[in-house]
Amino acid sequence: MNDRTARQTYSLPEAMAHLSSADPIMKQMIATVGPYERRRPPSGFAILARAIVNQQLSGKAAATILGRLTTHLPGRRLTPPALLALSPDTLTGCGLSRNKARFMHALAEEFASGKISTRSLASLSDDGARERLCRLLGIGPWTAEMFLMFCLDRPDIFPVGDAGIRRAIIESYPMRGEVTTDRLIKVSLRWRPYRSVASRFLWRSLDQAPA
What we know:
Layout: H1 12-22, H2 24-33, H3 44-54, H4 59-70, H5 80-84, H6 88-93, H7 98-113, H8 118-122, H9 126-133, H10 141-150, H11 163-172, H12 181-188, H13 195-208
Helix pairs in contact: 1-2, 2-13, 3-7, 3-10, 9-10, 11-13
């Protein structure tokens, strides 16, 4: 396993120094919002299950459903066996749609059977892990990218389809005319190989914006 396929480690101060050197706008953004704390990630299954709940919902609505769901789980922990023990009716009673209940059970079955695991995904390249995840029911590119960033801690993921990332770039960078995916990717190239770190500062910059 090489350093591009393992769960990657990197120095946050080194990443911030690189971003500041490569991009004066990002340098100012980092100075404004300040560094963030890298925390130990939750389980891979929990990240994906929560992502399914969050799809097409406001943060408040998703949090309400997750709160109801975890009351049915031992220790309020999202694990494959605990989720499989819940009936579809219990899941929909918590506020999940029938499709999301099916996606959650399918995901739990994949993890419980060992067909997929955080360790097996960590052994893959970024593209390989993204492709494997997108074969799961209810998992698309955005969810896969969140997993790569927040569970596997991959340093160079750029979630170009994320609405917050798009908004933060438009607000901070000169983007006259139509803002296309290609233009957003072009902006991100100056941040390589730390686009995941840059993305976190972009998200955090929105919290600093005036109402």
